[in-house]
Write a structure and sequence with these properties.
- There is one protein chain.
- The chain is mainly β.
- It has one domain (7-88): Jelly Rolls, CATH 2.60.120.
- Helix content is 0%, strand content 44%.
- The chain contains no helices and eight strands.
- The strands form two sheets. It has a five-stranded antiparallel β-sheet, with no helix packed on it. It has a three-stranded antiparallel β-sheet with strand order 5-4-7, with no helix packed on it.
- A hairpin with a 5-residue loop joins strand 4 (48-51) and strand 5.
């Protein structure tokens, strides 16, 4: 069985995911999500996201990003713990 590279809690349809700084880069796989989603960055230093056919860019604390369900994407490990909130649409 595939082990997820994060821990997750759910409250009021908002998922909170925590990626620990000890995660292996190889555990962060390219993937597509079943639903489109908004991702808010709560904390994390120097984490990046790469969306298919685009260069990776740094995720900014406090900013919200839209990720389309039809696009391949992956996280790139930063320097510390990454905490994100996810709202599927």
């Amino acid at each position: 069985m595939f082990k997820k590279p994060y821990t997750e809690t759910l409250k009021n349809d908002i998922k909170t995911r925590v990626f620990e700084p000890t995660i292996l880069e190889s555990d962060l796989k390219w993937h597509k999500d079943e639903k489109c989603r908004y991702i808010q960055i709560c904390s994390g230093n120097n984490w990046k996201i790469q969306i298919e056919n685009k260069l990776p860019f740094t995720l900014v604390e406090g900013k919200t990003y839209f990720v389309n369900s039809k696009k391949w994407h992956r996280l790139i490990k930063g320097n510390d713990k990454l905490i994100i909130k996810i709202k599927e649409v």
